[in-house]
Amino acid sequence: MVQHRCRETGSAGALGGRSICRGRPGCVVAVLLALGGLLSASVVHAYDPRRRWHTLQAPHFSVHYPEGAYGVASAVAKSAETAFAALVVRLDWQPATPIDIVLNEDTDAANGFAQSVPYNLVGLNAVAPEELGELSDYRDWTFELVAHELAHIVNIDTIGGLPRAINAVFGRLLAPNAAAPRFIVEGLAVYFESALGAAGRVRSPYFDMFLRAAVLDGSLFDLDEVTGAPLRWPQGTAAYLYGGRFMDFLARRYGEDLLAEIGRDYGRRLFPFAVNASLKQATGSDYPSLYREFVAETTARYRAQLHEVEAAGVIEGEALTARGQDFGAIRVGPRGAVYFVEAPIDAHPSLRALDPDGAEREIAWVHGAASFALYPSGDKALVAELEVDEVYRLYGDLFELDLQHGELQQLTHGARAQSVDLSKDGGRVVYSELSSMHSIVRIARADDLGGAETLVDLGPDTQVFSPRFSPAGDAVVFAASAAGQRDLYLADLASATTVKVTDDRAVDGGPVFSSDGRFVLFHSDRDGIFNLYAVPRAGGPVRRLTRVRTGAFYPEPSADGRTLYYRTYSSRGFDLARLDDVALDQAAPAESALARAPAPESPGVAAYPATPYRALPSLLPTVWTPVLATDTRGNTYGLSTSGADAVGLHAYSAAAWWGTASELAGFQLAYANRQFHPGVNVSGDRGLSYAAMPYVRNGQSQAVEEEVWSGRLSTSWPLWSRRDLSLSIGTGYELQYRRNTRPLVFDPFDRAPVFPDDGRFAATRLSLGFSNVHRYGNSISPVQGGAVSLGLRLEDPYVGSSYSAVSGTVEITHYFENPWLSRQVLATDVFFGYGRSSYLRRKLFAVGGLPQRDILLDLYNNSFGGAQALRGFPARPQIGDAALVGHVEYRAPIVDVETGVETLPIYLQTLHGSLFVDAAALADTPAAFADAARASIGFELVMGMLLGYGLPVDVRLGYGRAVRNGTSANLYLVLGDSF
Predict the structure, then answer these.
(1) What is the pLDDT of residue 866?
(2) Which residue from 552, 450, 557, 454 is spatially nearest to 513, judged by alpha carbons?
(3) What is the DSSP letter of 599?
(4) Which of 18-32, 484-498, 794-808, 938-952 has the lowest mean pLDDT?
(5) Residues with Cβ within 8 Å of residue 495, at least 6 apart in sequence
(6) Which residues, including other chains, have CB under 8 Å from residue 448's CB and lie 6 or more apart?
(7) Contact present, 859 and 974 (Cβ < 8 Å)
(8) CA distance 835 to 265
(9) Angle between the 257-266 and 182-195 helix axes, to the nearest 10 degrees?
(10) CB contact at 8 A, 933 and 919
(11) Which among 139, 78, 80 has a CA at the least distance from the CA of 600?
């Protein structure tokens, strides 16, 4: 961490441009942690502190769950025991147990995580995924989710040789299998989620579509892209898509035992990244060679499938957009406009409209997975999308959107609503409501959403999707996952009965009634490719509507029923398409659904004992890290540790060291408590530093070494939290004691000396922060929105200080996207601070130039912070009780490099450049700013890259030259963003 931005220095020992780490050795990481990112920090999640937690104890797992979720926890525990027993055998490794599993019910977004350092921990979002996506091919979602994350645990826990010996001394510090390319780490988990179940992403026709489209366009990923972090579609999904299929290829070629063998060998290697050595030892070949064979096999497979489609006769619509990326719900308005949700890589997801004359317009920003329904008038829409609820939760809620002005009004809070629809007269609303791994169909009057009632509940472990009213409003059709199948159901509102519309092994979804109400239109993968079909509402054979080469989803009929709009797919992603001259009565019968593996027998639910959650078992220190650093006199040596309990109610870090030259014992302690809202942070440290201002004797400055004791207490109160913006208030107290380590010598005949400030520095702080900054998938920087930070600091004997000081600060950062040139942005930052103090010489603010940096040392010490320095000026800071600092940068991409070297742990992403102007004025009062003003201009080249398979880094090479109050210039090489 380098302190070289304008900041308050009233109680800090280091000024801008000086490394804090030199005076505080605890912030330097140990040498063992530099081995390719082998250490994964404990994951701390801020769950709703109002929840009461319990622990279900299974033979090999401690499942921590919020009160009321015992049933879900039991199902998870049973699935975990079943999957774990199989994985231990198939990966030939037995991790230490019990393994902690935490169930998160504070989100409606399906996901999970696994960590093996410093201890084995799995986190599961207790909710099933959306209807269509990369996670949507499952027979038993709970089992496949658990199997995927436990595959990570067993694989990464496989540690032997010297890493195991080091861990025996220092605790779980090294996990070599975590330092493998993501296509191996995630690919292996995708392979086992599929191998242990009956579905999963290796078997998924949805994932087949991704590869088939890439083969059609000749755009399969190279190995370096799969190893790195590609910007082109499907971006981060590539590790799962190619990795899972590649691991399946290796298992079919050499036998599944190969996966265990290479995991055991790589897990014994102290030095990471030699992934080819482990594979070559087992097979005699390396990843590049075998990946080429995998690509050849994949190409042949999908070319054969494409040939079959073309031989049978392609039936495809016309693509109306060609931008790719992700695409959401579609509706046809009463005046013929087509409304749709689009999530591009370079802009915020939004609801858009395509008018009959071909003109396209943006209506409003929405969540990328939002669903919506149009009111009969056509001037409003009812939207279901994710929103922050009560700070800690991300739940689906209902909103009313004005289509003319783009204004969004929230109608529900915490409803957990998805997939919304309105009856044709606009009087009733139907939607799916989530509840853990279960969902139901709810119905309500449009003017009384709080009075929603359950329309359909298919029972435990079932999920419902996309409910839609019939044109007459007498029935609702929906898709559902039940008993290992994905079928269509119809609920008759008059008789309150529900019947199946389809019943087979295909994945059916996206149902909608035809305009006359006689048919149900839907998408299905019944022939191995997602196409559009129709089935008579009264029952009868399924009829084929399309025969596409890639995929077709979510049909939406026009008012006259002769046109179908739908979601199409290409190697660029999803787009809007139109199929004309649709005649449902004349559509040919569809083939029978292809045979698929039957759903595995459910692991069931076991009655495991449960007790109130105890944080201590997972909170105790499990890893010790050597501290190798320096203080003001020489080398320091010590140990550090950190930890967090499984649920994240407590987190701490501690370090202690001894200076061999200074003979001083230093330490750093930090603790965070999240048992209540908003939580609290406490920290303290002791070390050696230099006084902020030197001792002046006979006109000569002398550096003064000081022993520093510090303590801090702080908290942050979220006042307003939304997906796209936040407003929070922070409070804090800090106490610092500084004393000279050596007496300040002076002679009676000396001129009057000027002593540095020492003693107690105690202050209270109050801050207010707002942010609505946005950046997108291919952004080179934040591109829209801004942030405002206000601060007030008060130091007084009443709060324990030897001095009095008061200061206020305001900082405004804003980003202006170039409306004509893509991905170009004007970035601005202005800081103003002013205060008064009783200090003898110390000043409240300081700003300096960029110091010379050793980027390898910064990389080693994980020093990637921003660098709001006055570039082009010397590192020595300017000081004052008033400060005005500004930065302006124009940033533009130069080239998307997008390349690596096969499986080497470096991937170059985008090279971009910027022109900047930095300016600052520091003086005793704002009235003196004019005389103190300094400015510089310069340019930077910034290379974004991925190091060690998972560490994103920006390397900045720049040149700055002073143009006011100075003639200096400097060439610098640093890490991180400028601001």
Answers:
(1) 53
(2) 557
(3) P
(4) 18-32
(5) none
(6) none
(7) no
(8) 61
(9) 150
(10) yes
(11) 139
